[in-house]
């Protein structure tokens, strides 16, 4: 079996015609074969949406939440609504076409397709997950970077698509290069008016005593599936959970801090802007074994 696989959907949305009338729902293709047209708006404009779903021991994790978020992002971009059932089958087909791995992921991409064509392009790509064990156990170093938007940008300027998972992630990659230049592994975005937001591809979680806190989702950040699952886990462990507006100083004041996301799961933050901070090793291990062990 291959290490990676791609499934191309014939009809990513029921609101648009299929690519090939009467063809199968999706096709399993060789990853090295060409799949996308050079004029696809996903390629030329980053005009589309995506999700990355982690798999633990062959089980998709938070799949329903990921597909709901794909639909929400599509709505924000005025794309046709993804056919959730077709996408679910495509995700599972892609995952089962690769070598079984303890941890894997499937990335789903839906673009606007060719200009004027009206048919979105959609595919699911499956692969074994990279090894994130060091980030999980030793922690990560972050720098605070100004995102340049106020915390209320989603309300004042919805056309900026803050909080949607669009294919326009060049900025999310540029900040990682900036982090590397500053001898760090990742970033925590800060609003132009001084509030903690999220990581480049993750949500920020802080622990104060028995309370887990994350920045409120009305601040132009992505509603994380991992953060959602972790809040449920924390409550099952007797902790309180809270959404809040957090001034930047709160990161240094917290008893522990993490960046949490699908695939990497919970990476404890051990240094902020060159200053070491405490890591909660036991809770981090408990959280990661919960996240890795999820079967739905
Ligand atoms: N915030 C951003 C900007 C992201 O891109 C991601 C995931 O890629 C997250 C947060 C975390 O979301 P999830 O936990 O659903 O992976």
From TrEMBL:
Pfam families, A to Z: Aminotran_4
Protein name: Aminodeoxychorismate lyase
MF GO annotations: lyase activity
Any one GO biological process: carboxylic acid biosynthetic process
Keyword Lyase in annotation: yes
Taxonomic path: Bacteria, Bacillati, Actinomycetota, Actinomycetes, Micrococcales
Family stated for the protein in its record: Belongs to the class-IV pyridoxal-phosphate-dependent aminotransferase family.
Entry-linked InterPro entries: Aminotrans_IV, Aminotransferase-like, BCAT-like_C, BCAT-like_N, Class-IV_PLP-Dep_Aminotrnsfr
Protein keywords: Lyase
Entry superkingdom: Bacteria
């Amino acid at each position: 079996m291959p290490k990676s696989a791609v499934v191309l959907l014939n009809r990513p949305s029921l609101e648009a015609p299929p690519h090939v009338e009467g063809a199968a729902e999706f096709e399993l293709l060789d990853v090295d074969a060409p799949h996308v047209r050079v004029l696809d708006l996903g390629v030329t404009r980053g005009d589309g949406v995506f999700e990355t779903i982690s798999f633990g021991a062959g089980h998709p994790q938070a799949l329903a939440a990921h597909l709901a978020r794909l639909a929400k992002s599509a709505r924000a971009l005025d794309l046709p609504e993804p056919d959730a059932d077709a996408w679910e089958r495509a995700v599972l087909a892609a995952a089962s076409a690769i070598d079984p791995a303890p941890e894997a992921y499937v990335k789903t991409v839906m673009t606007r397709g060719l200009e004027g064509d009206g048919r979105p392009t959609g595919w699911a790509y499956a692969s074994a997950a990279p090894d994130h064990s060091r980030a999980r156990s030793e922690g990560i170093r972050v720098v605070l970077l100004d995102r340049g938007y106020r915390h209320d940008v989603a309300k004042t300027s919805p056309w900026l698509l803050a909080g949607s998972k669009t294919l326009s992630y060049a900025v999310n990659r540029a900040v990682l290069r900036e982090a590397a230049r500053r001898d760090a592994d990742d970033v925590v975005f800060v609003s132009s008016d001084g509030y903690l937001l999220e990581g480049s591809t993750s949500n920020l979680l802080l622990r104060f005593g028995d309370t887990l806190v994350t920045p409120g989702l009305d601040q132009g950040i992505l509603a994380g599936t991992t953060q959602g699952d972790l809040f449920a886990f924390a409550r099952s462990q007797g902790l309180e959970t809270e959404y809040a507006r957090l001034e930047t100083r709160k990161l240094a004041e917290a008893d522990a801090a993490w960046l949490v996301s699908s695939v990497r799961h919970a990476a404890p933050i051990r240094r902020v802007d060159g200053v070491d901070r405490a890591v909660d090793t036991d809770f981090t291990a408990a959280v990661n074994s919960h996240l890795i062990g999820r079967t739905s």
